[in-house]
Fold each of these.
Amino acid sequence: MTRSEEPAGCVFCVAKTDGDGRQLIVHEGTLAYVILNKFPYNAGHLMVVPHRHVAQLARLESDELNEMALLTQLCERVLNDAYSPQGINVGMNLGRPAGAGIVDHLHIHLVPRWNGDTNFMTVVGEVRVLPEELPRTAERLRPLFHGLAPKLS
Ligand SMILES: [Zn+2]
């Protein structure tokens, strides 16, 4: 997809060029990137997003799927290193009834979890009190991504 096909109003398409969005991006891959959720459920709530504006898994190419899986694996390692969570939710909400906040550009959520959290069904789409300032989270996670990323290939 060429840049001209990217919808101007899509936060995930805009994030790469938008100042606010760039602050939230913690790692960039070739076909996908990792961004902090602006309204995190917990500190370290990450999203793996394909560069292409795609709503359905079926429309992703296999190399995009592969990179998203590798980035999800990388996110797991970074979150474990940074926060030592007791669990991590990994998942996608495809379509509005499934809970997607941004329906047209799919993304994988990773939410670090600790005993005592509420269940996963309430995770996505809620606005929570920030447990950690986002710029601080980004500062903390970027070097971890940088350090771990080469080991994946
Ligand atoms: Zn988009």
Amino acid sequence: MSDIMKQESNPSGATGMGRRRFLNTAALAGLASVAACAEKPDSLPAAQAAPAADNAHPGTAVHLKPGELDTHYGLWSGGHTGDMRVLGLPSGRELHRIPCFVPDALVGWGITNESKQVMGTKPDGSLQYTVADTHHTHASYKDGNYDGRYAWINDKINSRVARIRLDYFICDKITELPNTQGFHGIFPDKRDPVDPAINYTTRVFCGGEFGIPLPNDGHGLDDTDAYRAMFSCLDAETMEVRWQVLVDGNCDLLATSYDGKLAATNQYNVENGVHYEDMMSVERDACLFLNIARIEEAVKAGRFKTFGNSKVPVVDGSRKANADAKTALVAYVSVPKNPHGVNASPDGKYFICSGKLSPTCTVIELSRVLDWFEGRAEKLDDAIVAEVEVGLGPLHTAFDGRGNAITTLFLDSQLVKWNVDAAIRFHNGDKNANYVIDRLDVQYQPGHVSATHSETASADGKFLAVGCKFSKDRFLPVGPLHAENEQIVDISGEKMVLLADHPTRGEPHDFIIFKRDLVRPKQVYDLDDSPIAVKDPKESSVQREGRKVTVRMTSQAPAFSLREFRVKKGDEVTLILTNLDKIEDLTHGFAIPKYNINFIVNPLETKSVTFIADKPGVYWAYCTHFCHALHLEMRTRMIVEA
Ligand SMILES: [Cu+2]
């Protein structure tokens, strides 16, 4: 085990930590040995026993009796599976997966015409992309709280952002960001910076992580000094990219202010290096604050460029071009090197940037950033109201709505709960200000953390979830690939109490948690949701136009409206299926053997598929989603004539 891991946590957390101020490359290499420790469970830090939750905090019992419902929804990023996962909390039960970026065999995502249109296709009709790496998910706001309209999720690999409608819990739009690689942080605005009447989300901000040549069309391949990353703003309704800001450094996480005026991204590699030793060569990086009103004025005034084929206006947010507060679009607030995660406190006052390589969290007061922009403060550094030690490897912060921050410590495998006001007093010289309130061991190496309504004005401090990157010995071994460990923690009292472990498939990263009454999902579609709905079984038909054949049919347990349909070899067949069963929970499936087709139709939902009937023969198309006692008999024959 590395020396770093052997160092004990300082119980006060406030003084005499005696640790290296910053981690170096050798310490980072220690992370590998942390993972390797899994072979020797005895050498691991002792897991803290979970007290019986029901006795300790009856309000947050995680073990629901059969038939009992969770009190909260959790929206989890699906990681490699490119979906959004819906959990019931605090039980941690997985309720649903909403496919976004990657095909899904249950709902036929990537199979149906409707989903392909959302996902994007090549000229030959095949999907543009079939892999994804989702990290972060956030939902739309109104008056500083979630309004239950939309959620958004990123795909880091192909720089895409997906929107999820929270009425049907489906993905309805995907946008690919131009001039961007490694799209990482995402956050919607919370209101308009100028128009006070617009107190809800209208913009979605996206942070580009990797620097690339602009345009990235084969020119400037080796001119690495010119590689730059891009911060983007999308229209929340149209999902079109409104504008972009060229920035120094690599965008990690994003946060937005409650007045709509500022968006922030914690920026590592402001050196703009292309190798890791270059990326960590300077002692301080920056948390960037974007002045939204000024950027939009600059775009309106035509002070922008475009790159390559993209028509999206790009303004200059480089450090050099933004030194003068009077004209700056972006403020570069200095924070310790390679920061990780920036989170907005629910009181609207502070953004907290975690140190990662530094054992500190930096507290930045938003009003002081605005003071700098508006000429009321000379030094931008004065916006830093605290920079205090919290433990090794601080990454992300959740809030309990009672003035406390709860930060994950990746290297210490801990959550640390600390009081923000006390940290500010300590920073200002009050050495008796014991800002660290509690520490809790988690299992193991935590990354993201979020609490109930954490980054909203109604943070209620009930419980939190922490995404542990390594589970090691916490679950039955299933071969070399370990599950990750999402842990649920009660934060309603002074001491944090570990309630439950939940294995998750890799790798979820980020999530949000909100009260269940915030959304009222629809249980049945409206026939008019689809312009091609087959509204009556009598409308069923097989229509031919040249080599194009349209098959229209309905499903109603236990039968499809057509007992058979005939096409000819080589026909382009479009099959439209409407489920006329309107009872909640009565979903049918539709699969065609040897034609790689399977999808579901929910009550009163319509979907379509298009394919070439290239194999003559009889194909039993059948219902793949259990619906009725005669489910096995629910079939139709596709007859392809030679
Ligand atoms: Cu069926």
Amino acid sequence: MNDTVADRFLRYVAIDTQSDGASETQPSTMKQKDLGRLLVAELLALGIADAHLDEHGYVYATIPGNTDKDVPVICFCSHMDTAPDFTGTNVKPQIVPDYQGGDIRLSGDASRVIRVDEHPELRNQIGNDIITSDGTTLLGADDKAGLAEIMSAAARLVSDPAIKHGTIKLLFTPDEEIGRGVDKVDLAKLGAQFAYTLDGETAGDIEDETFSADGVEINIAGVAMHPGFAKDRMVNAIKVASAIVARLPQEQSPETTSGRQGFIHPVEITGSMASARIALIVRDFEDAGLAEKNALIGRIAQEVVAAWPGATYTLKVHEQYRNMKGVLDRHPQIVENAVEAIRRAGMTPRRGSVRGGTDGSRLSLMGLPCPNIFAGGHAFHSPLEWISRQDMEKAVATIVELCKLWEERA
Ligand SMILES: [Zn+2]
């Protein structure tokens, strides 16, 4: 088991673990358990005796502490599935050893080129070994890099008694990409006080803030009628729905916002003359901003429908996830220790916000505070996904330093 982190990564990406939002099973695709079983076998081979895969597709494992100090139990977490956006079947990784700059043309599809202009992070990778797909599939660095890094760190912890640490928990989840990554997690069984996901991008990044997210559904009822006899009587729900969408503020769209700005985003519109449905997602870093956007949607729907006598509507808001920053700010040592671990692993730490959610945002709100650490991958969910071996090694070093820090500061 003298595998490098790159060896592990190449082994894991070969297993197709694409999740499927249309499936109602848990996990959404049974092939995710193929990787879960491999990870358990490897953990058992490392001597991590309680490693197991449960019926929902989660892998749990414990690395017992080797110190007399009372160290908080921390957990490292990453997800086993890949995104439904692009195929993950038959991934054929390509390695560019000792990258010397320039665009990277993918061998399996001449139209796929990772261009330095579009991927400026490549400029920081000179001399590194870059791993890509052949362009016909995604690579799966999101988040098999995280798995490989946690597994390599686990191997290092169990083989080197000189590294002092408390009890370390490992958690590998299915179905993160379809928003169900923590639906069936058993936090009592896990028994951790704090956690870290390894699911971020650039080496050195730590993210302690995510969007707060709601979904909004508007159902419109029109008045259906034979079009030949419709004068002054028909109300076409398609037109009402379209008028609502047309009134959404363009300056609050995903395509016009960045940084810490939120947005309103219609994701689906379906319907007929008789009835129509609009699904929207609403995102903001602040709860007040989220409430404002929901209220604006409500006002627009009310005003538009009022202008179409005979039409009626219902509007439902449901919570999707919440910014984890409020929870993490109550336990500042979680992020402080991660920042220091990144520094000790030889990088300049950079704190940032995720314009999205992570398993950690939901775990944090469920009572397991959980920021997100870089895993090193780039261009997630696409055939241009890439990662360097050296950045994965930096993530392994960060995990090991973090375990040492919690023990040192206990
Ligand atoms: Zn991910």
